[in-house]
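Loading example: each entry is read as two labelled lines plus one structure line.
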Amino acid sequence: MAEQNCLVANDWICGEYLRSRGQELTDATVQHIWITAASVLIGLAVAFPLALLARRGRHFAGPVLGLTTVLYTVPSLAMFSLLLPLFGLSAALVVTGLVLYSLTILVRNILAGLEAVPQEAREAAQGMGYGPVRLLWEVELPLALPALMAGLRIATVSTVALTTVGSLVGKGGLGNLIEDALPSFFKAQVLTASVLCVLLAVAADLLLLGIQRLLTPWTRIRTPAGASAGAGIAKTEAG
Amino acid sequence: MGVIGESWAWLTTGANWSGDGGAAPRLAEHLYVSGIALAVACAIALPVALYLGHVGKGGALAVNLSNVGRAVPVFAVLALFMMTPLRNSGYLPTVIALVLFAVPPLLTNAYVGMREVDRSVLEAARGMGMSGGQLFVRVELPLAYPMIMTGLRSAAVQVIATASIAAMVGLGGLGRIITAGFNTYDTPQVFAGAVLVALLALVVEGVLVALDRLLSPLRRRRTV
């Protein structure tokens, strides 16, 4: 019965909370995961052609990089609110906002990865009769993969954190639980949701690291390329 | 289109700017809290990063610290603060949260900037008889300057962005205009507040880019 008292006493850590609100926690976590996953996947699908476009020359690179950087500067609370007249109170609003944020990191990293492909590798492939599509798919993309994955990891981790702000419109996954608990000073709920959020970010990061290692077996002998490529991108936002 | 017109009307109504919860005092609050937090974060992060960069140790820690910072949602940190006695201490919870989020980019960038200084340049300077202190002030600092300023810029923008989240837990700043609009189902006000916050972040970024160019010790044009 001592466990039941922790809800009454409003303790930070409460086993009874986990047991009685398990369903609520699971639902919020699932919402958090699908909002994050959808945002990052759509972000990747949009960023890739943008990076290819930016690579074609300075007059494309300037506007693409400039626009995505400006978008990144907009605070998340403002971003979600600015999209409100377009989408209303929906998950599409949160996903769109998060996609716009992920673009900056993803476009820059994909571009950096593609530009770091050695010219000799490209010429060798062309000499072997590779067309532009096959060159991109079989030579350039695999070589750019470490930089791409580094960007994807940064984008995913910050998207997990930013999703909580979506509770502004009721679509914030674990952020919803935090917001619900605020007026009643429900400590256990705020702490549990916050910790789950951080665990989710760490788990996503490790998952992507694992995928990267599976996809790029040839880099395993050297030091992880992700660390240095990630440090080069100095932009962060924790809105 | 209706919302944008009504938001424009909201922004151009003088009464919305004055008074206790008006846009002008909210803006002052936002800048005050952000300014203090950025100054404190610089005072903590820069000496540590510059020293570590000079002696060349502790870099992995600085970079990892920054990556961990990304995983922690500001909203959750502020909500946790609101569950403690800190909630009665005015601007303190916001300032602490902002400092926590401004330190990692400052630290990482300043450290990486110091370490990326060309080793052969350092050896040449040492060969010319420069002491450790001279090396730091006359070679390392000017060459690391662009990276330090990049860190300062992302920290400043992050601080401005984070300060608006404070409104979600009932603390002050420009974000309050947005949350107040949400509470009264006043979409034009929400939109007007969002425009103000976004403009402030963009203006701060612009001013810092201009300052950066003006103050650069190498005075060369950098592409952003």
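Residues 226-239 of chain A have pLDDT under 50 and may be disordered.
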